[in-house]
Input
Amino acid sequence: GDLAEMIVFSSNLSVSQRQAVEFYLENKWGLTSSIPAPSSFTAARPFMRPFVPVDISGCVMWLDAADSTAYTLSGSNVTAWRDKSPNSTVLTLSNGSGGSTIVTTFNGRPVIQFSNSCFFNATYSYPLATRSIFFVVAEVVHANYRGLVNFANTTGQSDFNTSNGYTITSTNVTGSPVEFAQNAGNGGFSYFYPVAGTLNVPFSLYEDVTSNTAASIFVNGSNVFSTTTSVTPATSTGFTVAGRGGQPSSGTLAVAEVLLFNRTVTPAERQQVETYMVNKWGLRGSTPSNHPARLA
Output
């Protein structure tokens, strides 16, 4: 007869050791169909699922307009929006029940459109000194200082003050119609469309990745501005979407998704989140030509 392979051990093998040798020999010599089923060594298809933001540690807020299970509706109006991170923070509608409507207008997915000066907010502690913020928004109808994503308390605290913070304006951030402003003294930070804006600003992914005094701004995966400030921001006590400092602002805004991380993400993590968001919301073509999203 023919001999393919023989293995001799100088001691007795345990059951698991014997099965491991069997698995090696049967797979090597094409005898896997002879393995009794079920067996701890029979091959199983690995579990695989798409990346989600909470796969990266430190995700403390995930607002996803594409997930209908994450908000409460009154007719077609959204009255509450639940955070999908482990924190499960619920943002509630303020300043009018008829101004936040689900509309399917972007890449075949629902977005929340805010009008009538309404906004969502919640009491929320967030460390602005080590932050990573991502949001996909679009301006539908322009108005002065339309708030996007803002941090301040929920009782009308100023969300920015250039006398003790800094402002990154649309005039010195190439390719961004959004302004970023920090109030270092009271934990305020604001992202908003400025007075001199453009109607119908298209959906874009905006990002702020900051470590203490070093802030970097990205738009659709491109680093459009970096700065070192003289102040370290404080911790906010409130969080607002589509308003400013717990107060309304005018204009019509569409919000697709918002992500907050309570730490400064690494460049690799940032690009992973960017790839997830631009592919989900149809913005891949707006990323740099060498961005990993182009290969996804």
Observations:
- Residues 67 and 232 are 35 Å apart (CA to CA).
- Helices lie at 15-28, 267-280.
- The chain has a mean pLDDT of 77.
